[in-house]
Amino acid sequence: MSFYLAIDTSGPQTFVSIGSSKVGFVSVSNPSRSEETGFTEDLPCIIQDILSSSSKKWSDISALVIGSGPGSFTGLRVGLSYLKGIAYGLSIPIYQIPSLMGFAAEFKNEAKYIISISNAQREELFVSIFHIVENRFVPKSVTEIVPILRIESWVQGQIKDCSLDQLKYVGFAEEEITGIQIALPSKVTESLICLAEQGSLETFDFNKIAQLEPIYLRKVNARTIAERAS
């Protein structure tokens, strides 16, 4: 029996699940990450708790799944680094799936087009549009950074001749967006596992794990000591 361990640390909540679509899931979401301990201490504790509550051992895990962003730079780096360590230790693969696809998957039966968003700071959003065709996700657009005030016009430019009842906005924004109702995902990592089970997604085995990087879109602002001195 194959069991997956999935995490997503791209947004305001940490999502963790263990299980499979055949046997079910044990899941945890932490909506208020500790500002004092942060990811580095919270994430291992969350994963250890979920292993205990699911009566699973590390040896029961056959594959890992990561929500690879875009999103929080720190969250993505810490989450991926921790999962890489597990993958190396257990010699198991990692499935890389965009977090925005994981957000959308939970709502695939509720609209023809899913507009998946996450907070990009600076009054901007990371946005992807998915077209649901015969229960499959067909990306309608590449993931872009869109100003919050332009989100509706941007979506209209991507999707032609579509009524409002065929659209559904999902994900996490820093604040409410006037005129738009955003459904909050609650089963992110369960959805990621289901997507991994379907195959045809990028997989990093033991020899390729070092190549795995999060989806950033925006360049990192941090500079080296030498760059700051110049």
What does this structure look like?
- This protein is of the alpha/beta class and 230 residues long.
- The chain folds into 2 domains: 3-99 and 187-229, Nucleotidyltransferase, domain 5; 107-183, Nucleotidyltransferase, domain 5.
- The chain has 6 helices and 12 strands.
- Strand 6 and strand 7 form a beta hairpin.
- Helix 3 crosses helix 5 (188-197).
- The longest helix has 18 residues, at 73-90.
- The termini are far apart.
- The model has no long low-confidence stretch (mean pLDDT 87).
What can be said about this structure in brief?
By secondary structure, this protein is of the alpha/beta class. The protein is 28% helix and 29% strand. The chain has a six-stranded mixed beta sheet, sandwiched between helices. Strands 6, 7, 8, 9, 10 and 11 form a six-stranded mixed beta sheet that branches.
How would you classify the helix and strand content by structural class? alpha/beta
- In CATH, the architecture of the largest domain is 2-Layer Sandwich
Number of domains: 2
Calculate the mean pLDDT score and round it.
87
In percent, how helical is the residue content?
25-40%
- Unreliable spans are none
Give the number of DSSP strands: 12
Looking at this protein, list some descriptive labels.
single chain; 230 residues; alpha/beta; Nucleotidyltransferase, domain 5; 2 domains; six-stranded mixed sheet; 6 helices; 12 strands; 28% helix; globular
